[in-house]
Structure formats: C-alpha cells, structure tokens
Amino acid sequence: MNETKNAHQARKAIGDVAPQLAALTDDVLFGQVWEDTALSKRDRSLITCAALVATGKTEQLNFHMPFALQNGVSKEELTAMVTHLAFYAGWPSAMSAIAKLRELP
User: Fold this and answer.
1) Is residue 49 a contact partner of residue 75, using CB atoms and an 8 Å limit?
2) Burial level of 92, CB count in 10 A (0-12/13-18/19+)?
3) Mean pLDDT throughout 17-22?
4) What is the residue range of 49's domain?
C-alpha cells in the first residue's frame, strides 16, 4: 500500500477523540481507496468535491478543494463544477460552495 502525503493526518486531527474513525480515515479511505489506480487522484478529487457540494457538506471543502488543486484540478474546473451542480444539486449548495472557492489561492 502506498502512503499519501496526507498519511496519518486524521490521527493528528481527531485521533484523541475518535481513534477508530481516524484509523479508518487514514488507513482505508486515504491508504486504500484513494490509492486505487482505477481512478486518478485528480478524478477522485473532482468527484469528491462534487459529492460534497451536492450533499451540502461544504465544511469538508476546506480540506478537499485545496487537495483537489494539489491533485491537478484547476480552480476554473472547480468553479465550473459548482456552477454545473447548481442546476442538479440546488442553488443553495452551489452558493455555499462558492464561498469556499473564494478562499482558494
């Protein structure tokens, strides 16, 4: 299993409160799922951001939008994704995501 540069980040962030959730996040989600080569990390990032916007989980975009940039998704692509989702997932979700886009460099 390949280690990502985000290895053990959940353990640092939430391990004191939820050690099992932290271990699953680090080992299964980022250690196995994100390392599966069936999808590129770029595609996984775009899919993840779209799912978070569509479900209104915009707080998680604080991590996933910058991570998407690191994985090769452009800010323009993120903006286009949010605009597209406004018609399919709802205007309020898109507007909340735009606030997170503003925070990107």
Assistant:
1) no
2) exposed
3) 97
4) 41-102
